[in-house]
Amino acid sequence: MVNNLKTVKGRAKKGQVTVRVDSGIVKACFPRNYCNKNQIKLATGIPLENGWESTANKLQRKLQIELEEGEFDDGQGNFNLGHYQEILKKYGLRSNLKLANSTVTSDDQLPPKPELSLMEIWDRYCEVIKPGLKETTYSKAFRETFTNFLKSALEATKSEDAVKIRNWLVENRNLPGVKKLISHLSKAYRLAIKSKLINYDPFDGMSDEIKHLGAKGKTQNEVETESDEDILDRSKAYRWDEVLIILESVKHTMHWHNFIKFKFLTGVRTGEAIAFMWGDVRWDNEEILIRRTYDRRTKGFYPTKTAKGNQSVIRRFPLPKDGELWKLLKSIPQGEPNEIVFKTKTGKIIIDANFQAVWSGANGNKGIIPLLLKQGKLTKYLKPYNTRHTFITHQIFDLGRDEKIVNAWCGHGDRVSQKHYQDINDRAMQINPELPANIQQIQQSEIDILKEQLRQQQEVINKLLQDRGSQVNIDT
Predict the structure, then answer these.
(1) pTM higher than 0.70 for the full model?
(2) Fewest CB within 10 A of the end CB: N or C in the chain?
């Protein structure tokens, strides 16, 4: 028999299994006289939604037959939890019961209290608040948008850790929506605590830490940009040999290879790489310009983060002829000046959430970095933004570059005035970012020597010409 919601507290006949709602979830309740007179209640994994009774009826009949045939006796007088799990598996269910051991010895204490998954807690919460919501709000916001946010985060992080989920959502979904979702998640966990299903709320207070940024029509300073915290922390950067491994792994997917390589070679932020246009490439001057970023939520272009007040600062970056960056840009079919350089396979603008999925794994992608970690080719996972950390630490620590020069290229230091920035940048544009600083100094010294030799030779020639002119005058 299956008790409906109005008869949750109804008791079964002696020796009979019931599958009923208990503490807000559907449980299988075994008779007390079966296992040392202990009441055994186990989660079934049946979702509490329309039609749950039909599934519960089928499961109850199966459990009753197994009970009568003695299949739940492990041979030592204990309840066979493993056999119970096998039955649920055959029915496509999951009990969410951690099998620390195979014994059940006390009333409502063992087995351990079922541990609900994040999605089960969320589903229960949605059902509880449904009556108080408009149908469109419930279906669109809670059952579609928020639920998809959670599923994507769970798939990407491969974890139910609250911090990892919050961080992924903040990086990959719109902040106002994420703030609301985290707030509702905390409420969902508090509801589960009240129902004595779980013991704590891992999302408590997290929504307060999330600030609304980048709403449409906001100023540039309010647009969400990637943080430069710990930009010189080498533990948050890949070694350059690891960079080559990453690039080699995506060479078969050219549009992602080009996009990732550009980030590694220039240290630009993801939004700046997305917003990079052909009009920003100045072949004759051997330089590129970084002057805008793209905001995924507003779908608009904004001045770069190094802007001070309403004054935007255009960053110049060297483009040595026939260097790696030059060859990379030459390998891409050139478009009109107002066309973006890096596009998707279908020719559309790159969405940073899709880039995140390709990088870390989600939406059917195995993920570049997880795959390399599994193969033992990398030793740590770093977020896509750390391509910027990698470029900066490579320039300063590996190539011996002056930090002020790197700052001029990347704009990762304190904001400076346009004039001061321009003074440093003029010097920075004389430097090849693809060569070690000491080699370039040697080359510069050799050039200076040649210039001095040419100057001395020119003086000799001028003197000879002057003497010859004097001689001609004397003869005359």
Answers:
(1) no
(2) C
